[in-house]
Amino acid sequence: MKASQVFNGSHGELWIDGEYFAEVTAFNAEVNLEKAEIKIVKKLCKNYKVTGYECKGKVKLNKVSSYMIRKLSDSMKQAKQVSCEIISYINDPDAIGAERVVVKDAVFDKLILADWEAGKMGEEEYDYTFTDWDVLETAA
Fold first, then answer.
1. What is the pLDDT of residues 3-19, one digit of tens each?
2. 3 three-state secondary structure
3. Can you tell me the distance from the alpha carbon of 88 to that of 32, in angstroms, rounded to the nearest whole number?
4. At a CB cut-off of 8 Å and minimum separation 6, what does 136 contact?
5. CATH assignment of the domain containing 34
6. Contact between 103 and 32 (Cβ < 8 Å)
7. pLDDT confidence of residue 1
8. Taking the alpha carbons of 80, 101, 87, 126 in that order, is the dihedral positive or negative?
């Protein structure tokens, strides 16, 4: 491994429902296992059985538009759930290959209506959950 092969997040890209998000500054999607402890006689070490998993993530954006307000506001007021598809792509020219993942049925946990401060650049951060994913491309 060479240090230059480590992925640099500055080469990441993001699409939400097919719309390109040049304003993205960070993206995370993770799957956490849910486990139940299993007791086994004559074993002092805890043992676990996987019983499910939880899918969640985070999107961080520079505030350049009202996209999220337009996408979520009316539906939230009508108690309708908005789900979307998110595609993450990172292709650092120094890395060994690229990585592309699609997150399905993503539901944002909140809607930021206003959040600003004098002298500070605007940014938004949205947590979300999802139910499925596909790995479309992997690095070496």
1. 998 898 999 999 999 99
2. helix
3. 19
4. 87, 100, 101, 102
5. 2.30.110.40
6. no
7. 86
8. positive
Residue ranges for the chain with pLDDT beneath 50: none
Q: How would DSSP label each residue in 96-133?
A: SS-EEEEEEEEEES---S----TTS--EEEEEEE-SEE
- Threshold 0.70, pTM exceeds: yes
Q: How far apart (Å, rounded) are the C-alpha atoms in residues 11 and 138?
A: 15
Which amino acid belongs to residue 30?
A: E
> Burial code of 10-27, b = ≥16 C-beta within 10 A, e = fewer?
eebebbbeeeebebbbeb
Domain residues for the domain of 7 are: 3-137
